[in-house]
Design goal:
36% of the residues lie in helices and 17% in strands. It is an alpha+beta fold. The chain has two domains: 3-238, DNA methylase specificity domains (Adenine-n6-DNA-methyltransferase TaqI, Chain A, domain 2), CATH 3.90.220.20; 267-488, Adenine-n6-DNA-methyltransferase TaqI, Chain A, domain 2 (Alpha-Beta Complex), CATH 3.90.220. The strands form eight sheets. The protein has a four-stranded antiparallel sheet. A four-stranded mixed sheet has the order 4-3-8-5, with no helix packed on it. A hairpin with a 3-residue loop joins strand 22 (448-449) and strand 23 (453-454). Helix 1 (3-15) runs antiparallel to helix 8 (219-266). The protein is elongated and about 110 Å long.
Length: 492
């Protein structure tokens, strides 16, 4: 139950007579209605309110629940004087009424908040002497009755104002204004209001609004109900803060759990180390020999030697048989996609042209992919031709997402994505290592911020990776594939 549900429950209990006890000495709502009728006749005689058409009697079909013996169902217009305000053309409002120093504040729909507040400081005032505008008075209620916010923007006034034509003023004839104010916020009223809505814009006519029924308690009970609601609302606000914090924790928990598991994995704590696996140093030497062989055969290019890893760079201790390496050390090729704008063709024709948006963590999505023809594909693939087992990294915008190519699709890429071809290592392990908090922090520090974030090849080359022996890499990947899907089930 969120805070709004809790508030709705309190209001529902209130208007059903279940929030405070009933007291015989407080009389009945029937007696209150008689007093209201007397007051109404006096106000009509004095010309302060208009005489209303007699409302239809309330039928049994309209009554939504049983009320207490001391309560009465009545129609809205029986207890309140209700009317809409006046519209002002925008040009006149800005040119004439924005220059008034002394006058009534003019309240438009935008000045009544969804949080039940009213903004009086919009700079528009109506001169006191101008009598063509209708007033709404202190302790009266303004509610939007037309448009998307109809029935949901409600406020109670602390002074006399003029107001707009999409707002309805409820001036209680006799009673506790805040009881009506809270009733108008209740789910019961909103449902009744929504049932009367018509039109493309959506709204309720003043005539239909006057006919909506209200469960009315005796006056003293109204006051006690209001006092109890206002006693409870600060607790609802505190609950809202606590609920939001819990919701945020629940939302973040699966993601935080995944991050923790990945971090656990790259620190050598997810699976056991086995002596028979050998060492990462041996694996590193094999990789260097393989790279020399491929360079000699002209299959890959020799790259610049990167600086040795210093102790200051190492973020944590790893097992003795592991080794810190730079990504370039264990890769045969690191490149990004085409820098010039490729000539695209119609969807579903030609070859896939990937960009950063197609590279997600652990997934290559083709939902919004571009295409190039064969000639463009051949040209781009000379620079970047991802193959099964290559790692793709997003390098622009949301940088650092990565996935392994595990299909036989023919891909080429644009500059916003990069490709890493490794040798001697398990590609999925490298992918998970890149996704870990340790490497993501490096990526963040190495990313260049211009109009948007950009991760360049020089930064990718020098990323620091904790490398275990190959067999342990494979065991780590198997364990991650077993454990990580379970964290998704924790999502709320």
């Amino acid at each position: 139950m969120n805070a709004q549900d809790l508030k709705n429950s309190i209001l529902q209990l209130a208007i059903q007579g279940k929030l405070v006890e009933q007291r015989e000495e407080e009389g009945t709502a029937k007696e209150l209605l008689e007093k209201i009728e007397v007051e109404k006749k006096r106000l009509i005689k004095e010309g302060k309110i208009k005489k209303e058409k007699k409302q239809l009697k309330i039928s049994e079909d309209e009554v939504l629940f049983d009320i207490l013996e001391s309560w009465e169902w009545t129609r809205m217009s029986n207890i309140a004087d209700m009317y809409t305000g006046n519209s002002i053309p925008k040009t006149i409002k800005e040119n004439k009424y924005s220059k008034v120093e002394n006058g009534y504040d003019y309240i438009g729909t935008k000045d009544v908040g969804f949080d039940y507040t009213i903004n009086y400081d919009n700079g528009i005032k109506i001169p006191f002497e101008e009598d063509k505008f209708r007033n709404s008075f202190k302790d009266s209620i303004l509610m939007c009755i037309e448009g998307g916010s109809a029935g949901r923007k409600i406020g109670i006034l602390d002074k006399t104002v003029c107001f707009g034509n999409k707002l309805c003023s409820f001036n209680l004839i006799y009673g506790e204004p805040r009881f009506l104010y809270y009733y108008l916020q209740s789910p019961l009223f909103f449902q009744a209001f929504r049932d009367e809505m018509t039109g493309i814009i959506g709204g309720v006519s003043i005539t239909k609004l006057k006919g909506i029924i209200v469960p009315l308690p005796p006056l003293e009970e109204q006051k006690r109900i209001v006092a109890k609601i206002e006693e409870l609302m600060p607790y609802v606000d505190k609950y809202d803060v606590a609920y939001s914090e819990v919701e945020e924790l629940n939302k973040k928990f699966p993601e935080d759990m995944q991050k923790s598991i990945l971090q656990y994995a790259i620190q050598g704590n997810l699976v056991e180390q086995r002596e028979e696996d050998g060492t990462a140093e041996d694996l590193y030497k094999q990789i260097q020999e393989e790279k020399k062989k491929l360079i000699k055969e002209g299959k890959i290019k020799k790259t610049k030697t990167l600086p040795e890893i210093t102790e200051d760079e190492i973020p944590f201790d790893i097992p003795e048989n592991w080794k810190w390496v730079r990504l370039n050390d264990i890769s045969t090729k690191i490149t990004d996609g085409e820098h010039k704008t490729p000539k695209r063709v119609e969807k579903y024709v030609g070859y896939y042209l990937l960009s950063a948006r197609n590279v997600l963590n652990g997934e290559i999505t083709l939902e919004d992919v571009d295409y190039v023809d064969e000639a463009e594909f051949v040209k781009i693939s000379k620079r970047c031709n991802p193959q099964n087992g290559d790692i793709l990294i997003s390098c622009s915008g949301s940088v650092g997402r990565c996935s392994v190519v595990r299909d036989e699709n023919n891909y080429v890429m644009v500059r916003s994505a990069a490709m890493v071809s490794t040798t001697g290592c398990c590609p999925e392990y490298i992918m998970y290592a890149i996704q870990s908090g340790t490497v993501q922090k490096q990526i963040k520090n190495l990313t260049k911020q211009t109009a948007q974030a950009n991760l360049f090849l020089g930064a990718i080359n020098q990323l620091l990776i904790p490398m275990p022996p190959l067999e342990e890499q494979i065991r780590i990947v198997d364990k991650l594939k077993e454990v990580l899907p379970k964290t998704k089930k924790l999502e709320v």
